[in-house]
Each structure stands twice: as structure tokens, then as C-alpha cells.
Write a structure and sequence with these properties.
mainly alpha; 10 helices
């Protein structure tokens, strides 16, 4: 029991560090909260958490074995994730110079929860974590209670961190700063996500 609890704590701590490291999830959550509303930012955080439930459950059901048995599946997942990032980057960059219209349907792209979920599902960094590090740290036999606890811990880490990000970026001073600097912030965000998407697409091509 003691070793199982230590494993839970270790995986939770390492995954939290991976969550905190900046990436597409951080940028999407921050931008949604500051450009739309605190509530939409929180919905993105919940979507990211839901995506983590899927990834962690898949890992516990043998995701790593599947990737090794069918390498093309991982390549396809990485390419799909790269294309989704490029789409998001293009939308942000394209509308960078336009005044912010909070209620404009085009600005929202999709339901914020769904947007967070799709970002998480298509994020290769998340796939690599759950397909390698997560699996490697598990004991040979994982009891049901431990599987449920792991899913709860990693999903909670995702939700509480990005909830904090959403609350911070939705604060009035941060929001006012964004409204003034929106064109440049959106261009930099779009370029960063676009570069990341291209790099992932290139690496997916190399893996073929």
C-alpha cells in the first residue's frame, strides 16, 4: 500500500510539472479567458481535464502497447494535432488586428469546453507523457482503486492549474492590458502556435 501511494504521489507530481510547462493548453486557456470571459476560460480548463481523463484511461488500458504495435497510429495522431494547432494559429493571427467582439460567434470558434477537449486530445506532448513516462512509472499490476485514483489525480491537476490560469488572465488589469496590446499579443501567439504546429508536422513526416 505504501509503495502504491508513493507511486501515486510521484506520478501526480511529475504530471503537474508537465502541466505547468507552457504549451498550447496554456495559450488557449489564457487567451480565451482574457478575450472572452472568465466563465469561458473555466470551460476550457474543464475540457482539458476531460481530455486528460481520456488519455490517462487509454494509457491504463494499454496505449503504449498500441503505439508500439501500430507506429502509424502515433504518427497520424501527431499529424492531426499539428494540423489542429495550425488551424488555431491561423485563426488567431488572421483576426489579430480586428477589434475584440466578445459576443462574436467567429471569435468563439466553438464551444469553449469542446475547444479545450480537442486541444488536449490532439496535443502530442500529452500523448508522449501518457504513452511513455506515465506507463513507465506504473507497477506491473495496477489495482482498480489505483487506476481510478490516478485518473482523478492527473485530471484534477489539469483542471485546477488551468482554472488558476483562467482566473488570473480574466482579472480586469490583465484584460485591459490585452485589449490595448491585442494585435501584437495575438500575432505572437499565432506565430508561436504555428511554429509549434509546423515542427510537429515535420517530425511526424520524419517518422514515416
Amino acid at each position: 500500500m505504501t509503495s502504491d501511494l508513493l507511486t501515486l504521489l510521484s506520478i501526480g507530481a511529475i504530471q503537474l510539472m508537465a502541466v505547468i510547462s507552457p504549451g498550447p493548453s496554456f495559450l488557449i486557456t489564457a487567451r480565451t479567458a482574457v478575450a472572452q470571459s472568465r466563465a469561458d476560460g473555466l470551460k476550457v480548463a474543464l475540457g482539458l481535464g476531460a481530455g486528460t481523463v481520456v488519455w490517462s484511461a487509454a494509457a491504463l488500458l494499454g496505449l503504449n502497447a498500441v503505439f508500439h504495435a501500430v507506429p502509424a497510429l502515433f504518427v497520424a495522431m501527431k499529424a492531426a494535432g499539428a494540423l489542429f494547432l495550425l488551424y488555431i494559429a491561423g485563426m488567431i493571427f488572421r483576426h489579430a488586428s480586428e477589434p475584440l467582439r466578445i459576443e462574436d460567434g467567429a471569435e468563439r470558434l466553438a464551444n469553449p469546453f469542446l475547444k479545450g477537449f480537442l486541444v488536449q486530445i490532439s496535443n502530442p506532448k500529452v500523448a508522449v507523457f501518457f504513452g511513455s513516462i506515465f506507463i513507465a512509472m506504473l507497477p506491473q499490476q495496477v489495482p482498480l482503486w489505483m487506476s481510478l485514483a490516478l485518473i482523478a489525480i492527473v485530471s484534477f491537476n489539469e483542471v485546477w492549474w488551468y482554472t488558476a490560469v483562467a482566473l488570473f488572465f480574466a482579472a480586469p488589469p490583465v484584460r485591459r492590458f490585452y485589449l490595448r496590446a491585442k494585435p501584437w499579443i495575438d500575432r505572437v501567439t499565432g506565430l508561436f502556435l504555428g511554429a509549434l504546429g509546423l515542427r510537429l508536422l515535420w517530425s511526424a513526416g520524419d517518422a514515416l
